[in-house]
Amino acid sequence: MDNNQRKQIIDNAKTFFRNEIVQNHINGACKRASKLSEYNINPFLFKYLANFLTGNDDSESIARALVLPRILGSSINTSFGMKIQSLIRGFKIFISDS
């Protein structure tokens, strides 16, 4: 494999991450985080979580403590693994064609 092929693989991987992983994560996270009915707020816990996360319990800190788990939750781990598998399959095809 020469340097041009390596560069093309890296460029393809960057495009794949940008289009397949990042964009899907943004779309899904915004959808999950925007549904107020999906939030199960524990009135005894949310101020503690805000303080633990940011050091205070102002409204922005509370919002961060409630929204971040939906954005950084397990769904990105699952979709990331599946997308990486498809990326690797694509590399195998690319490498075997050269």
Task: Describe this structure as you would to a colleague.
This protein is mainly alpha-helical. Helix content is 80%, strand content 0%. The protein contains 4 helices and no strands. 2% of the residues are buried.
Précis, in short:
Helix content is 80%, strand content 0%.
Mean pLDDT: 83
**Number of structural units classed as domains:** 1
Supply the number of helical segments: 4
Q: Give the biggest sheet.
A: none
Share of residues in helices:
over 70%
Q: What is the molecular shape?
A: elongated
Total DSSP E strands: 0
Strand content: under 5%
Topology:
Elements: H1 3-34, H2 46-54, H3 59-71, H4 74-97
Keywords:
98 residues; mainly alpha
